[in-house]
TrEMBL record:
Name assigned to this protein: Pyridoxine 5'-phosphate synthase
Sequence intervals crossing the membrane: none
Reactions catalysed according to its record: 3-amino-2-oxopropyl phosphate + 1-deoxy-D-xylulose 5-phosphate = pyridoxine 5'-phosphate + phosphate + 2 H2O + H(+)
Entry-linked HAMAP family: PdxJ
Main subcellular localisation: cytoplasm
Species the sequence originates in: Rhizobium oryzicola
Keywords: Cytoplasm, Pyridoxine biosynthesis, Transferase
Binding residue positions for 1-deoxy-D-xylulose 5-phosphate: 46, 51, 106
Amino acid sequence: MPAKLSVNLNAVAMLRNRRDLPWPSVAHLGRVALQAGAYGLTVHPRPDQRHIRFSDLPVLRALIDDEFPQTEFNIEGYPSEDFLLLCERTEPEQVTLVPDDPTQATSDHGFNFRTQGEMLKPIVARLKAKGMRVSLFADGDGDEDAVKLAKATGADRIELYTGPYGGCFDDPAKGREQMELLGRTADAAKAEGLGVNAGHDLTVANLPALVKRIPYLAEVSIGHGLTADALEFGMAETVRRFRRACGEAL
Ligand SMILES: CC(=O)[C@@H](O)[C@H](O)COP(=O)(O)O
Ligand SMILES: NCC(=O)COP(=O)(O)O
């Protein structure tokens, strides 16, 4: 089974927010992505709303419900009370919890399950009780004990933080090392019965090797590199290119 592509709309929202105007439209580009066969949409609303605004969420929820009911909405964020309430109001199919500080420019590490595992347990249970699948952002450093602690939170999946892998675009040997660490983390998660997602700095160039190493990868969420390609190739063609890179025969 190829990894499913969820298109992260944060970068589109960031372009829109340069002006007090409604374009580029997050909802319209989400529609184009889903029409082109993306499996889902991802957003990462940050507390300062510098990318996705809280008001985007009901619009995207309605887009999926009304026009693409076979697809999924994935909301990412730090599990503050405000974020949890936002998820409970929006009811995404999946919530990806990340340990981001509000001042961070972008996500750059996974949870420390040794120190944060107990904090996560009731939060995971609360979201799952409302029918949302829960994925936890995790470092892909090959730490098998950390994966066991992630499993103990009750989460359904982990999302491998692939930033260090994506950062090796100009150093293939280091890229292979990072990929092996991601692969070992993923294998440990699979052995624990956790599903495995991945995201951050994935591109059409670095995806094929990753999905080959982790053939059971459930889902990738991609925004920055995909939006960069969409400027060149258009959103629909870009989604098809990424689907091919995920292993879909198109
Ligand atoms: C959780 C994660 O991996 C991030 O990639 C995030 O979703 C992207 O967020 P920004 O687009 O706000 O940098
Ligand atoms: N979870 C990762 C994500 O949604 C997108 O990350 P990026 O492709 O914008 O780096």
